[in-house]
Amino acid sequence: MAGKKVLIVYAHQEPRSFNGSLKRVAVEELNRQGCAVTVSDLYAMDFEPRATRKDIAGVLCNPDFFRYGVEAYEACKKRSLTSDIIDEQKKVQEADLVIFQFPLYWFSVPAILKGWMDRVLCQGFAFDVPGFYDSGFLKDKLALLSLTTGGMAEMYTKTGVSGDFRYFLWPLQGSGPVARSPRWTPCCLCACPGPEDRPRMAGCGGESSGQSAFEQPAVSTCEAPVLRDRLRSHSCIPVQDSRKTPVGT
């Protein structure tokens, strides 16, 4: 495990939030395993989420009719994307595992994280045609979604009002831009914990089973309330029973 590199792409405004605690736990546990951990704190970085002409540092292929996908692709090949994009791409290239830590916004990632995906994981870097999904450029890397919700756990089941979270996360894990390359280890969903549950769910205490995040099978998704357990153990733990009153993420 020593020498493995992990990138955590963290998207929450408040360091003391539950998301912030989960990020801290991941850093502590991965460091304990001997990994080198890098965190991209998107809000702290004031990361630009908009994909615009400004992303192209060189000359545009067609200045009269701007097509972002085409221009970003050509700029990626010429190494003429802006420095903030290139810096993040270097982090992804160096990482063996990429963890996305975020609260669920409208059944997806926050806009700042979506913008990171749009700008960083562009054609020519993360994938090409041909060369996507299981043959993408990042196919040998592992990726993990770690997310929280403001809703109760039963809302995200097959019969829940919001539907099974596996389905609305499928564009990320199964067919979306992030899924074009990395192999996915199961996701960690923390559904609206009560105040008394948060310390335990944030991974306080516990003994390691001896299995690391890098020894997990590449499957689509599982339910797990404790990120530290997810990083340590192969066992899949059911989603935490929620409280009756949502308390935010």
Please describe what this structure looks like.
This protein is α/β, with parallel strands linked by helices and 249 residues long. The protein has one domain: Flavodoxin domain (Rossmann fold, 3-Layer(aba) Sandwich), CATH 3.40.50.360. Helices cover 27% and strands 13% of the residues. The protein has eight helices and six strands. Strands 1, 2, 3, 4, 5 and 6 form a six-stranded parallel beta sheet that branches. The longest helix has 15 residues. The protein starts with a strand and ends in a 17-residue tail after the last helix. 42% of the residues are buried.
Summarize it.
The protein is an alpha/beta fold and 249 residues long. Helix content is 27%, strand content 13%. The protein has a single domain (5-49, 85-232), classed as Rossmann fold (3-Layer(aba) Sandwich).
Mean pLDDT: 77
Task: Classify the fold: give the CATH topology.
Answer: Rossmann fold
Backbone structural class = alpha/beta
Report the span from N to C terminus. Answer: 31 Å
How many DSSP H or I helices? 8
The backbone outline, from C-alpha atoms, is globular
What's the CATH first level? Answer: Alpha Beta
The total tally of domains equals 1
CATH superfamily: Flavodoxin domain
Q: Which segments are poorly predicted (pLDDT under 50) over 5 or more consecutive residues?
A: 204-211, 216-227, 233-248
The CATH architecture would be 3-Layer(aba) Sandwich
Number of strands: 6
Cofactor: FAD; Zn(2+)
InterPro entries: Flavodoxin_fold, Flavoprotein-like_sf, NAD(P)H_dehydrogenase_qn
Keywords: Cytoplasm, FAD, Flavoprotein, Metal-binding, Oxidoreductase, Phosphoprotein, Zinc
Family: Belongs to the NAD(P)H dehydrogenase (quinone) family.
